[in-house]
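Q: A reviewer asked whether we had any structural model of the full assembly, not just the individual parts. We don't, so I'm hoping you can provide one. Inputs are below.
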Amino acid sequence: MALKYLEISGGRPLFGEIQIQGSKNAALPILASCILSEGTCRIGNCPAIQDVEDTLEIMRGLGCSVSRRGDAVWVDASGIRTWEIRAEQAARIRSSVLFLGALLGRFGEAVLPRPGGCAIGGRPIDLHQKALEQLGASFHGFGPIRAEAKKLKGSRIRLPFPSVGATENCVLACALAKGESWIENSAREPEIDELCAFLNRRGARIWRTDPGTLYIQGVSRLEPADWEISPDRIVAGTYLMAAACTGGSICVRGCSGEALAAVGKVFRQMGAEVWNQGNQWAVAVKGRLQGIPYLETRPYPGFPTDLQSPLMAALCVASGRSRIRETIFENRFSTAWELKKMGAEIWIQGNLACIEGVSRLKGDMVRATDLRGGAALVLAGLQAEGTTRIYGCEYIERGYEDICRDLGGAGARMRTKVTFGGDEK
Ligand code: UD1
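A: Here is a predicted structure for the entire assembly that you could use as a starting point for your response.
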């Protein structure tokens, strides 16, 4: 059986410039939203990652016609013939849940087997369901989620927590609902505003009345439109972190100052030099990074949970003690056990991780169990002495187009290898 792994020869600082791929978390809801109208949408700068491929498979399964040329994807949802998502397709990706709002919005019916995705926490969908119920949807049955609504009606929804996915599902369902809706305590991630901007280009009427409230005037139909996906702020943050922890200096192009503001602040705390001008960010590090006494992951505009594992990898060799509290996903510390194999000193107590900086990490065989944890292991491998092998690198491919191409261009020595029962390629 073929077994894929990533091999990294560590100990080289990264230097150079990296153009950042399109954002995963913007592309997934934008693609799901294409089914809200007939006609063809062209989505440019759409990242070539596994999560996008899985989403396109779901759309094909529903009857959409989908094609890709270069970085653009064309979706025509005129021929949808079912509103039931297949179990094996839903199991591959968490954001299959977004088809609930989109299918209900257009057809008033949706069947969704339990969504899969990275094992970073329980990941319930109660907030999605409650919000959609407020719009008039009813849910039936055990096992697959069966939802129906004769006609969705606008409502004032207050989310108990600013969930990204629940906010997106509400937006998708409200765009075509009858009357006005308010989504209070909505998530404020830039990818949500991008989804709203795309829908507005297609005729929707959505805007923020204050930072936490989305106001939506339902319209009777949407038109297809073209869109260019924005660069991925999490990928940009990962690469900046990679340069910082190897003592190098890189510039990433594509992410606005605001999108990475919380990350820039943390870099400065760690003693890195950071510049932001327009859509360019650069980081440079001379000497050893400093630990961070205390940091909490928070919903946007706070420090993103998606960069918590890469940050932990960087802090493993920073001077002094760091403490990170993970407040969003309870299982995001599983990468710590792999980092410990490489010589890191980390203690976990509930949702708090204490990291005592060591002078160096040592290459080893480790296993990725989620997307961002996998990226963190890449950062650890880049700083480590010797060779690191990362198994489970398929997780990394869910969100990074080609991490070897991007970091290799900045001087990293890393490549993907495959073994066939002992033979290597
Ligand atoms: C999205 C992002 C993911 C990011 C996360 C938080 C996409 C495709 N994924 O995931 O990369 O890490 O936001 O920024 O955009 N929760 C509930 N009930 C619900 C929904 C969520 O309890 O119905 C909880 C979750 O278990 C979690 C927290 O709320 O503890 C945040 O989840 P949410 O913001 O919904 O994350 P996702 O949309 O899944």
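A: Points you may want to mention in the reply: DSSP finds 14 helices and 24 strands in the chain. The chain has two domains: 2-21+231-424, 24-228.
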